[in-house]
Amino acid sequence: MEASSPAGLAGNGEHSATNSIQEKQDGIVALPAGDGPEYATGLQMFLIMFTIFMSTLLVALEIGIIATAIPGITDSFHQLDDAGWYGSATFILGGASSPMWGKVFKYLKVKFAYLTSVVFFLVGSIVAAAAPNSTAVIIGRAIQGLGATGTLSGSVLIINYVTQPKRRPVLIGSWMGVFMVSTILGPVIGGAFTSGVSWRWCFWINLPLGGPIVALVLLFLQVPKHIKPAPATWKEIILQLDLPGFSLLLASLICLTLALQWGGQTKAWSEGSVIATLVLWIFFTISFFIVEWLQGARAMVPLKLLRPRMTWTNALYCYILNAVDFQIIFYLPIYFQSIHGQSAITGGVNTLPFLAFFALGSMVSGAVIGKTRHMQPYQLISALLMTAGTALLYTMDINSSQARYIGPQVLFGFGVGLGSQIPMMAVQGFSTPENVANSTGIMLMCQAISAAYCLPVAQSLFANRMLQTLKSTAPNIDAVKVINTGASEIQHVFKGEDLTAVLGAYMAGIKDVFTFSLASSALTVLIALVIPSRKLPDHDIMETEEKVAV
């Protein structure tokens, strides 16, 4: 089935845009003079982008806000074993559902699909805010993840739908800047609510913010007339969602998270339940790829879309870069709060250099690529800067000065910002119009699923190394008490030699996470060298492709 909506840029990994245009000029497709896609301009463009940025701000805040709310939630329900799920539930559902949202935007009206994703997010916020028990919080966070992924997927697609090709790199860069600003400000806002009011307000606050956003979507989100859903029956749409593939991917992520949550912390790695969940994770993952192969064009991750080197290398680059990014976002505040005894708000302020230089790198990337159309050189520079930044973060210790932990953030933040948006632009730019929705879903899956994988791994590395270090340096200290104590409370609960031992164990665990980040950053350098060095199609060619697709 061929979609009727020109969902993105021109060309693909196997045929050049120029050849595609030539085929159409040879008589395969003819268009009346003056026909072509219509793009938003002026006030209409401003209102659409404002709506997208506000919805992105809303859902991205929630990604980071949970970090400082978890201690308050565990105090309310006394379910420490569930603490890891409060953060990971969002990423698990988000990662598993990202490709499905690509199908939803392909076969349903864009405005309806986008509004539905926002409503899902708000419903999840209500469930989490009013939760009578720990399980309800996890369910609410999962629903939030489902909605947040749809909102983020739709935001990137709508930018492609309503803007001229030459403006897309800058606007996608600006959108990525809004996303990162919101993600980093989340822990600061969460800390303020948790300390000053209640952790429940981390979720209730979404309602007064979400209501106006729903109104903005209804009033101002106008999609160009040439963007139409692909024709399909409801039965075909359901089959296209690939529910078997979704179920297998979701099950594999849950099994991995359980294994890493238990192993070495609440259960021994040799216990049967830990081994069983690891085996099931492998089984479900293999089964997922088999099902995707059997599903063919109906797969939520059509494997044929990953065949071009331009696509699979950028998908891998996107996956690893975001894994590193999330590790630093989550564990740098832990370093500030535990090692330096800073409050959640102060720790958030000390991450502002990372925030500012990420935004700068993102804007520089969008502007330079929009001008030169080159991508791969900036991905390589991004990977090198990111590796240098993580290396400096790894060398921090208990006595590091403010200048010592601000400098690495500048280098790392600019490096990540420089390369973060390029994979999405590359995959969209070299996808055929009918495949852009699916390709966008795959790329957003790489972003979300990297967090679903790397954060449990990082937590396992941190907790296991911390407990091992504590056992060897201070066996008299109750390990359960250390685990139950939040990062910001360590310096209040422990004193004297016990505090010194606990801080040393915390630092050892954090260094293990930064080691993981450093190795992953170095891997992005190698991946960048494999990415094809091709320019994005020229503006004229891209616009002609979209005109022909109408």
TrEMBL record:
The keyword Transferase does not apply. Residues 48-536 form the Major facilitator superfamily (MFS) profile domain. It holds the Pfam family MFS_1. It is found in: Membrane. Coiled coil: none annotated. SUPFAM superfamilies: MFS general substrate transporter. The keyword DNA repair does not apply. InterPro entries: MFS (IPR011701), MFS_dom (IPR020846), MFS_trans_sf (IPR036259). Gene3D superfamilies: MFS general substrate transporter like domains (1.20.1250.20). GO terms for cellular component: plasma membrane. Signal peptide: none annotated. Its main location: membrane. Keywords: Membrane, Transmembrane, Transmembrane helix, Transport. It comes from the Eukaryota. The chain crosses the membrane at residues 46-73, 85-105, 112-131, 143-163, 175-197, 203-221, 241-262, 274-294, 315-336, 348-368, 410-430, 442-462, 513-532. GO terms for molecular function: transmembrane transporter activity. It is a multi-pass membrane protein. This is MFS general substrate transporter. It comes from Melanomma pulvis-pyrius CBS 109.77.
